[in-house]
Design goal:
heterodimer, A: 230 residues, alpha+beta, OB fold (Dihydrolipoamide Acetyltransferase, E2P), Ribosomal Protein S8, Chain: A, domain 1, five-stranded mixed beta barrel, 33% strand, flat, B: 240 residues, Ribosomal Protein S5, domain 2, 4 helices, disordered C terminus
């Protein structure tokens, strides 16, 4: 039973984190009784569990996630949507317009190739292809705004504790922000300047996601940006 | 060389000691358009590696239902050697692509991404012997930078023999004029060898010496890879 690092140290794949009885958390694996890291990140020793908060990670789709995606292709009765996951997602007609598919439906009128959409993962099929739905509030095709891409593992930082970070950005700029768990963030503001401020702020959050006291620093940064624009 | 001096001390062509590596510089996250990337300079070798994925496998018939497919492409730029070489993939490029794939595969959790592909593109900008080792070293850093789950880093280094003496990290001249060349790749934490090639002739004792020598070199490179990966985050930490 021993810990080999301090909590929140940067670890690299293969680093032995723990030896002895424990559960393995995110981004870790067990080999010959040792718990090792699989991704670069910050190690965290919880109660009976060792995990790594990844600094770099791809998106792993889960049921219930809100995602921002782009339509890749239209098949008979379904759209193929890129959500930055290992496999593209599928949106069927009943999940898009709340009506069964009929051959006379003109699918590009609802969503065309290249359209950006905000959707929710409602299910996975038996090959673990994500099934999307755009039925619901704030879901559906996106008409305007910016999308920014950040590393999906840094999304929790952008949201903050109980949404503190995103609420602060909302209050300061008045922009609508849809945070896709897949690392794409949609920003819709009243003016271009407001949207640009949010883009800058999000990029800074991504760069400094692993540091402490981020919310306060971002607040000051946002104020200085706003003064520049005034 | 003075004729008076009877015993001339043996030295390598670039004045290195027998167990000395060339100067190495590694940088991670150099290409914003790739999911993960790395740049390495091993002596006069310059290699840039980009990683994409895991993503959908095309053509789909080559996808494996239970695991991801690792695809590697090693390519030498036309200007990487003098005289210029043809940019078309050669027999040698294809072989080294395969060798890199075999060296990296055991380190990656491929079974976590069924039906998908992970792509590694290594581009040699300048070659000076040992580009496959440099490519593997950079590819590992790029894979970690892409956030692909790995068991361990893969480190690679060559050892060989010239003038009857075993040496570490052969340059181009030593590679061509020497008696043997032995690239090794291995995972230092798991202590598993993932690549062992040999070109030339070595006695069993020399082979063991060379492997030990290469392992030593790998351990030194491993530390540099760690530094490079941490540097991307460490520099910003100081600004707090």
């Amino acid at each position: 039973m021993s810990e080999f690092f301090e909590s929140r140290d940067i670890v690299i794949p293969g680093d032995v984190l723990f030896e002895g009885r424990t559960r393995t958390g995110d981004n870790t694996y067990r080999s010959e009784g040792k718990v090792c890291a699989t991704r670069i990140g910050l190690v965290e020793y919880g109660r009976g569990i060792v995990s790594v908060i990844a600094l770099e990670a791809g998106y792993n789709p889960l049921i219930g996630d809100l995602v921002v995606g782009e339509v890749l292709d239209i098949n008979l009765g379904r759209w193929v949507v890129d959500i930055d996951a290992p496999t593209p997602a599928v949106l069927t007609v009943p999940d898009a317009i709340d009506a069964p598919f009929r051959p006379d439906i003109v699918m590009p009128d609802i969503l065309d190739v290249g359209d950006t959409l905000v959707a929710k993962i409602v299910d996975m099929d038996r090959r673990r292809t994500p099934i999307l739905s755009i039925l619901g509030r704030d879901l559906g095709r996106v008409e305007n705004g910016f999308t920014v891409r950040i590393t999906p593992s840094k999304i929790p930082r952008l949201i903050g504790k109980k949404g503190s970070m995103v609420n602060m950005i909302l209050k300061e700029t008045g922009c609508r922000i849809a945070i896709g768990q897949n690392g794409r963030v949609l920003i819709q503001g009243r003016t271009r300047e407001q949207e640009e401020i949010v883009v800058n702020v999000i990029n800074r959050i991504e760069r400094e996601a692993h540091t402490t006291g981020l919310t306060n620093r971002i607040q000051e940064y946002m104020k200085s940006l706003k003064e520049e624009h005034v | 060389m003075s004729p008076r001096k009877k015993k001339v001390e043996w030295k390598r062509i670039d004045g290195r000691a027998r167990n000395e590596l060339r100067p190495i510089k590694i940088e991670s996250g150099v290409l914003p358009n790739a999911d993960g990337s790395a740049y390495i300079e091993m002596g006069r070798n310059k290699v840039i590696v980009g990683v994409f994925g895991p993503k959908e496998m095309h053509p789909k018939r080559l996808a494996k239902p239970h695991m991801a497919v690792l695809r590697c492409r090693y390519h030498m730029a036309p200007f990487s050697v003098n005289p210029r070489r043809s940019p078309a993939p050669s027999r040698r490029d294809n072989e080294i692509s395969m060798v890199i794939r075999h060296a990296l595969e055991p380190a990656i959790f491929l079974d976590r991404y069924p039906r998908s592909a992970i792509e590694v593109y290594a581009e040699v900008l300048q070659a000076d012997g040992g580009t496959r080792c440099a490519s593997i070293n950079a590819a590992t850093v790029a894979l970690v930078d892409a956030g692909i789950p790995m068991r361990d880093l893969v480190v690679s280094c060559a050892a060989g023999k010239i003038d009857g003496k075993t040496i570490l990290d052969l340059g181009d001249y030593e590679d061509q004029k020497g008696e043997a060349d032995l690239p090794v790749a291995y995972m230092p934490k798991l202590e598993r060898v993932t690549l062992l090639q040999m070109d030339g002739v070595l006695s069993p004792e020399e082979l063991e010496q060379c492997i030990d020598l290469a392992m030593e070199g790998c351990k030194q490179i491993y530390e540099m890879q760690r530094e490079a990966l941490k540097k991307k985050y460490g520099v910003e930490k100081e600004g707090e």
